[in-house]
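Lab notebook, bench 4. The sequencing result for the construct came back, and we need a structural model before the next group meeting so we can plan mutations. Quick request posted to the team channel:

Model the 3D structure of this chain.
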Amino acid sequence: MKKTLTAVVSVFIACSSAFAQTDGPGLIIAKSGAAISAESTRVEGANVHYVAAGSKSEKVVPVADIIGIIPYLERGVKYSDQKIGLVLELIKTVKSKHPELRRKLNVIESDWIVAGKPVDPGLAKEIDAVVQQFNQSTKGESAYKRATTALGMIRFKDKTGSQDAVVDKALADMKIAYLGFDLPALLARGDAEKFSKAELSAYRAEAIEAIKGKTTEKEKLALKEAFAKARETTIRGCIAEIEAFFDKYKAVSVYHKSVEDLRAIKEEICKEDSDFELVKKSDEKMFGIMKEQYKGYDFSFNKFPISPKDQAVLKVMKPFSSLQPVKGVKEECYMVPVRLPYKPMPVANKTVVPFIFLFNRAQSPASEYSTVLSFKDAGGSDVTQRSPVPPPQLVHARMATRLALDFTKAGEAGQGLEDGEGLHVLLRLDIRDKSKAGSEWMPISNACRIPVSPAEDKE
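Done. Here's the predicted structure in token form:
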């Protein structure tokens, strides 16, 4: 008997190595009678390496100190009659040597006894009955809970997992019928390698509806995480396309178009700080490349592309450039007069003044432009005079133009604006979308401060 037991134990320990290779759980039986429930076991030479249930650290016990390792039955695994026999033989041996372990071993033993029996044909009929009853119901919450509970009991009885695939399909179909959509498929879509804006928008709509529906809190969280992943995928994909387009040309105007596209991503897609950080890094990357392409340019003032030639103009004309704050401005244009025919300008005159317009944003072909001359009338009330400007023809985000400035109304009013530094008028650039009815004018530059004097002071 001792020889037979030794053979069984040695064979079983050799077999247990196979279980351990798949991190199979089992009950380690020490010669002292101690029983260690292990989440995984691995036999290496003269030692057994294991991770105890509920523990994260691996421990080691000498093979010489144990009787054997009784594996827990793994669902869905087909065992040979020989292996089942070996396990049952070992359990019987341990029971005889350590009767105090009988209660613990009885549960494991019953599982292995069932594993050696033919599949119960009644299980399939029970599953069919549950499915049929659910399909004939309203498929509401109570019917769904009743059906899933019944299938859970069938799964519990099916120790070998012979019907797991059938039960899984029945549960999945019931879930779809109950929720009104395929939750696993919806979650899986979040793992797609590529998302367009349109695809993300559609996915968002479906996810929102699912979250509003009958999903559990855990499922709602999973849906939010899946959509967050899809959103990041979309952002990264859009950024890659934008950067590829920019790399092809590396021009100021292309950079502005790229920034406009990044801005659309921020407004339409970004939600988390990490999303905005991706966009910010892309902008910084392209801006750095652009500065290398335009050596000698000064981009330090709100990213306006100021060439060496324009820098020379600014040395003289900066006090008259658009630096005076305008309320509600979304600064996209920097206006610089190349020269002023008179300093100060006589208010009774009409004068053509050459200007440089520098832009730090892409301009839409649907936009129309106008200059606004501001001053005060004799009674001290604000007066504005709007004049149309042709759409800018930009080269490196720059346009040279000549503005016909009419100071006669300021002359009729008798004064410009007084701020303690002398009489002046303010000139700014406005924009509106001509494709939209009722679109209002909006300032896109701060104002140029142009000094003026009464007409009689003209020399």
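Confidence is low (pLDDT under 50) at residues 1-22.
Will bring this to the meeting.
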